[in-house]
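User: Can you recover a sequence for this backbone? Please restate the input before giving your answer.

Assistant: Of course. Working from this structure:
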């Protein structure tokens, strides 16, 4: 995709991602390909490749590029997976996942955000993303099980339905903590058992729903 932002995007990949240890070549390629500026309101497009999270409306944010890349890398996608995302937001993370897997289901509780993301993803030609408006803390059973699940909002705990809907050998990547500070957490399912690992500290907007924070 050739656009006026190609150089900024290449620099983002070089300095913010490679420079901080993102190594998976497929993740780096996807981050260099998806036009992040298109997922932002017009007045913020010039900042799209900055090293920061940005507001996308309805009080929500698009994550910092490094965070998107780091969480995606932790999923260890090879290309044939079915992935569930909770927190569609702008649709940017969903597009990155769609570049790297076979099928993406992405859930969003704010219907207007889901609709806007749907229009844009269609315009950009992504045919392997299914958007579902609703509470993602209960997952989406009709498409389960998933080889990878990513939650892009702060979770008070690991939502039980998400672990249930994870395939054996699959990975769930999510920020777990309180409303103000979380730890990026990696949950693996091995023969039905839960294996949990912790990565770095992070700050996300709250996950609100049955297995999330109260509204
Ligand atoms: N991944 C997004 C950023 C997400 S911000 C992107 O790439 O732009 C977190 C999103 O999670 C917000 O849009 C918020 O509305 C949504 N969210 C919060 N609780 C949710 C829930 N229970 N189910 C689905 N989405 C939820």
């Amino acid at each position: 995709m050739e656009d006026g932002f190609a150089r900024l995007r290449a620099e983002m990949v070089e300095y913010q991602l490679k420079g901080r240890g993102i190594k998976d070549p497929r993740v780096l390629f996807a981050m260099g390909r998806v036009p992040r500026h298109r997922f932002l309101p017009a007045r913020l497009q010039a900042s799209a490749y900055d090293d920061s999270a940005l507001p996308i409306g309805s009080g929500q944010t698009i994550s910092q590029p490094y965070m998107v890349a780091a969480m995606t890398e932790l999923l260890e996608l090879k290309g044939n997976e079915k992935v569930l995302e909770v927190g569609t937001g702008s649709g940017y993370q969903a597009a990155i996942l769609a570049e790297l897997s076979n099928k993406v289901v992405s859930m969003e509780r704010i219907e207007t955000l889901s609709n806007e993301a749907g229009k844009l993803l269609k315009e950009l030609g992504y045919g392997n993303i299914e958007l579902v408006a609703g509470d993602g803390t209960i997952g989406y059973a009709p498409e389960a099980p998933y080889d990878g699940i990513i939650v892009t909002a702060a979770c008070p705990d690991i939502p039980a339905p998400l672990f249930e809907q994870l395939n054996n050998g699959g990975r769930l990547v999510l920020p777990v903590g309180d409303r103000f500070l979380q730890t990026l957490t990696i949950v693996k399912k091995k023969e039905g058992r839960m294996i949990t690992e912790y990565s770095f500290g992070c700050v996300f907007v709250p996950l609100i729903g049955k297995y999330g924070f109260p509204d």
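That completes the design. DSSP finds six helices and nine strands in the chain.
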